[in-house]
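Long-time lurker. I teach an intro course on protein structure, and each term I like to show students one example going from raw sequence to a predicted 3D structure in token notation. This year I'd like something fresh instead of my usual example. Would anyone be willing to generate the tokens for the chain below so I can use it in lecture? Attribution to the forum is fine with me.
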Amino acid sequence: MKTFLVVDDSAVVRKIARRMLEGWAFSVAEAGDGEAALDACASAMPDGILLDWNMPLLNGLEFLERLRRQEGGAAPRVVFCTSLTDVAHIAQALSTGADEYIMKPFDEDILREKLVQVGLLDGEPI
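-- Reply from a regular --
Happy to contribute to a lecture. Here you go:
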């Protein structure tokens, strides 16, 4: 079973994402900030990470920079999921090591399409 880590300071976003991901047979863990996410990755590196940008303690970009430097940290497919929609933020996330980028609010079709694109789900992109 593939594993997924949902990193967002909003419990509501984590719950919604968890339901979608579990519906696609992922085992899902959650973290409310970047520090907790790094701890989770040190314990068990996930196959995929859904990552918010604006969080306390360590934001999504800082988390991603540290993740990619860790042993095994290049492996997870990281999908940024944020309300920051300008081209500069998208470019910065992708150049830092994100595999894809989706805007909040998102729905099941959008998330599924991105997971297919990064190779975490089988199927054809919509």
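Some talking points for your students: The helical segments are 11-23, 34-43, 60-69, 87-96, 108-117. The beta strands are 3-7, 27-31, 48-51, 77-82, 100-103.
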